[in-house]
């Protein structure tokens, strides 16, 4: 084989190797991109689940123009926690409010629970709604919190980084169970200062003015 033939064969072999490497690199790049996308999806889902791992759904019956108190008992003990109450504007709702685009809601709360009874606090980090009012009032007590939400068959999602204890009894009242009757008693079995009858809450037909518009911090609604 002549020198020219050897050089030509070497060039051909080099080109073939280059093409093979390029093909392998493209295959590797495609696999890396696919795995990166897969990991991004996993990371986002994991972040959502780890950030707010406790999730519950509540549907409130009654009248579509009435707001019913929903007790939220469990909260971090001597810790801060995050609670989000939301509903998609196409979630279950009364037909009297329309066919769709009904009462979209996002209410994000930071809460504090402590052995010191004067250090139970609730802070509204963000509150927004669309199409229809969904929240009438939020109240913080020494044991837990109460949120008045629109009824008539409205669906709400509760998300938190602590166990809300849906269906459990706290202070004699079932957590996250809407209270439909006037003068419903909260904390009937709780210790002082509630011992001896607890306190009463009732459905509302008017909205506390502080909840009549969307807010974000800083705002007068910051501490409830």
TrEMBL record:
Protein name: Phage tail protein
Organism: Chromobacterium indicum
């Amino acid at each position: 084989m002549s020198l020219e033939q050897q050089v030509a064969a070497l060039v051909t072999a080099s080109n073939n190797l280059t093409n093979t490497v390029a093909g392998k690199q493209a295959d590797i790049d495609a696999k890396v991109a696919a795995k990166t996308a897969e990991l991004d999806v996993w990371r986002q889902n994991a972040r959502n689940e780890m950030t707010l791992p406790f999730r519950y759904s509540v549907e409130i019956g009654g009248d579509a123009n009435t707001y019913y108190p929903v007790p939220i008992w469990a909260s971090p003990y001597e810790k801060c926690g995050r609670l989000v109450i939301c509903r998609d504007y196409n979630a279950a709702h009364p037909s009297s409010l329309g066919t769709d685009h009904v009462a979209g809601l996002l209410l994000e709360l930071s809460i504090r629970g402590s052995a010191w009874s004067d250090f139970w606090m609730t802070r509204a980090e963000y509150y927004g709604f669309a199409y229809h009012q969904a929240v009438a009032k939020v109240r913080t007590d020494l044991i837990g919190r109460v949120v008045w939400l629109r009824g008539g068959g409205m669906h709400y999602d509760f998300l938190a980084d602590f166990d809300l204890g849906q269906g459990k009894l706290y202070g004699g009242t079932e957590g996250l169970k809407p209270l439909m009757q006037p003068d419903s008693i909260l904390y009937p079995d709780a210790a002082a200062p509630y011992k001896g009858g607890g306190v009463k809450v009732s459905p509302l037909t008017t909205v506390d003015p502080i909840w009549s518009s969307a807010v974000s911090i800083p705002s007068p609604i910051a501490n409830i």
